[in-house]
Write a structure and sequence with these properties.
Elements: H1 3-7, H2 17-32, E1 41-45, H3 53-59, E2 62-66, H4 70-80, E3 86-89, H5 91-96, E4 102-108, H6 116-129, E5 130-141, H7 148-162, H8 165-176, H9 179-187, H10 194-203, E6 207-210, E7 222-227
Parallel strand pairs: 1-2, 1-4, 2-3, 4-5
Antiparallel strand pairs: 5-7, 6-7
Helix pairs in contact: 2-3, 7-8
Bound molecules: S-adenosylmethionine.
Length: 229
């Protein structure tokens, strides 16, 4: 099993429906806050189930949803078939889309599952698909020195505020015995230092910046923007 297979199957990353709903809502509100114009074209790369995507779509002209997992794309197509602003796409659809047609590409909580070479290839594709002045927003990046305890503390705080604290405690036990933990030990999660991420953005033609806040609940993780000059 690799990360792609993991995300294409049943998993228990979210401890219950309330966790998933609060997570998706928080992400959607944060992503919607990044949209700069009502006619913007936005690509959410590695979007997951994105159950709050209608909120983002309401703030932009067109929202493209892409996830590597075919099962996730199938769910997205069913969920958003009636939303005229949302287009669920596969990798081929992104490649065939017009160059310089996108205003923002959001990559939230995905980088850890990509090798460094895959991230560099993504930056090159993004550079071609973004218009001048457009941005790639790379969020929830795990810092090089991060500890698992940082993620646990952030989850428990989010759970306490969201009213699913005891379910989250149970979820931590489940995670301990899960495929996620086994894969994490086997494949690892890709991490970046701030300097490393900024150097990669610059090397691939972006004016990069570390942002003061991350998307989502975990503020120990990092967010970067790369603007096309
Ligand atoms: C932790 S989830 C994040 C989902 C969503 N961005 C969010 O913030 O809720 C990671 C997602 O990245 C997707 N993913 C993993 N590798 C990918 C790749 N190489 N290309 C596109 N998506 C990928 C997975 O299928 C999964 O849905």
């Amino acid at each position: 099993m690799n990360w792609r297979d993991f995300w294409n199957g049943e998993h228990s990353i979210y401890v219950n429906d309330r966790h998933r709903a609060l997570h998706d809502d928080r992400i959607a509100r944060d992503v919607a806050g990044l949209v700069e114009g009502a006619d913007s074209a936005v690509l959410d790369f590695g979007c997951g189930e994105a159950s709050g995507a209608a909120l983002v779509a309401a703030r932009c002209g067109r929202l493209y949803l892409y996830d590597a997992a075919p099962l996730v794309r199938e769910h997205l197509r069913l969920r958003f078939s009636r939303n005229e602003k949302i287009v669920v796409t596969d990798a081929g659809g992104i490649d065939e889309a017009p160059d310089r047609g996108l205003d923002i590409i959001v990559v939230n909580s995905v980088l850890q599952y990509l090798t460094r070479a895959e991230f560099e290839a993504l930056l090159d594709r993004a550079r071609v698909k973004l218009r001048a002045g457009g941005r790639i927003v790379i969020a929830d990046v795990i810092p090089a020195g991060a500890k698992a305890a940082d993620d646990i503390a952030a989850l428990l705080k989010f759970a306490f505020q969201g009213g699913f604290f005891f379910a989250a405690l149970g979820g931590l036990v489940t995670t301990f015995f899960s495929d996620y933990r086994k894969l994490r030990a086997q494949l690892g999660l890709t991490r970046y230092s701030e300097g490393d991420a900024l150097a990669l953005l610059a090397a691939h033609g972006f004016a990069g910046a570390r942002e003061p806040r991350n998307i989502g609940h975990n503020q120990t993780r990092m967010m970067f923007t790369g603007r096309v000059p």
